[in-house]
Amino acid sequence: MDLETDSDQIAIPAVYMRGGSSKAIFFHARDIPPAGKKRDRLLKRIIGAPDPLQIDGMGGAKAITSKMAIISESRRDMTDVDYEFVQVGVADDEVKYNMACGNISAAVGPFAVDEGLIKTFREGKGPPTPSDSTTSQANGLSGLAKTQAEPRYQEIRIYNTSTEKNFIAHIPVNANGKSVSKGKYQIAAVPGSGAPIMLDYRETLGAALNKGLFPTGNPKDEINMSNGRRVGITISDAGNICVFALARDLDITGHESASELTRTKHLIRATRELRGRAAQMVGMCADWNKVDEQSPFLPMPVLIADPTHRAGSGAHVCGRLFLDNMCHESMAGTGSVSFAAASRVVGSVVYNLIGADAAKETTLNIEHPMGIMPIAVEVDMIHEDGGVPRFLTLSFIRTARRLMDGSVYVPAEVFEDEEASVDA
Questions:
Q1: Nearest CA among 206, 162, 167, 207 for reference residue 78
Q2: Which spans does this entry mark as compositional bias, Polar residues (predicted)?
Q3: Nearest to 90, CA basis, from 41, 49, 46
Q4: Is 238 helix (H, G, I), strand (E, B) or coil?
């Protein structure tokens, strides 16, 4: 990239996009520095971190809006584009690349198509045929009105450089080959509706550690918390690595609002310890007390409980996911993938809660603070000995929309040497 400027600010081409229930700034890889300290300084300055309000940057003071995506044409034969996801800390000074974001992954295909990065058209798949006329996710994946005009779908094969795993996005496109954002599909936590984008995550097992679904080798383990309590956990690595535990084991119902849980300081300390002990167990940190320095975001803690059975929800389980020491306002897409994968293994914390009958269904409906997140999950068989099945389906539907494009500005001093203050 060319960093020359006659101003005290530098303009960098960027696109601001919503993907699912998150937002991110998208860049072409060619427009920003290569991986390293210079890039990290730039991305933090763009987002406005570290600052709890992110007032002098593009971030929205929440983990779900402190995200970036770096896109380029793929150098690999079997994929179309490379996608590097970046999670930037809000109040802390962290920039992390070793994870994924399922919500933001929904926007990768539309960005790639509209930016001219896709050279070959492959016919994609539309969402499942609806069984009724609902336009919401209340009843799983049958969320399309029967009267909705059917667009053409394009298959985009995406390589996540952060996890070194592939996933497939099925993008609705118009007659001119541009992505379609208008549609009747509604997702929880996003007002209005949009065109459905189906994301196939079957190939993402072992996303963080490349050790299969269960990096410990067990569907369930136990940890000793500092309060003397022994807690059963499942560490599941699909999409993103998560650690699941029963909400009641951390003294909550699992039905509280996200804001209430984030304000509950003893719970945040407990979820941090849960993350730290799980991270230490699988080698992501040497000392759980140092997890915020050594593994600040992963594994994502998820506390689960029986659903509230709100009218018509069809929920199988209730989940509260924590990211950056805050409760997620809804449910991470990759967290849902990890959730669904664990739910089909006998003996896991998730399977034990939902029961054998729910595990035989083809959708897992997860109740979260703002609604329902359905994940299509089908396996070759349920192994009674706790073995990991072969996943025939592991997918979810999101919507995405381009919000703004142009340039994002940063002070030129951000590119000075490391000793210089970027805030001078």
A1: 167
A2: 131-140
A3: 49
A4: strand
Residue 52 has pLDDT above 80, yes or no: yes
Cα gap 418→333, rounded to integer Å: 36
Q: What is the pLDDT of residues 71-82, one digit of tens each?
A: 999 989 899 999
Which CATH superfamily groups domain 9-200+401-415? Diaminopimelate Epimerase; Chain A, domain 1 (3.10.310.10)
More confident residue, 151 or 8: 8
Helix, strand and coil percent figures for the chain, each rounded to 5: 20, 30, 45
- Extents of the domains making up the chain: 9-200+401-415, 221-398
Pick the closest to residue 370 from 306, 297, 315, 300 (CA basis). 315
Query: pLDDT-derived band of residue 129, with 50, 70 and 90 as boundaries?
Result: low
Q: Which amino acid does the sequence have at 124?
A: G
Q: How far is CA 257 from the centre of its chain?
A: 20
Assess contact for 79 and 157: CB atoms under 8 A: yes
Question: Thinking of the domain 221-398, which architecture would CATH place it in?
Answer: Roll (3.10)
Q: Token digits for 13? A: 């081409």
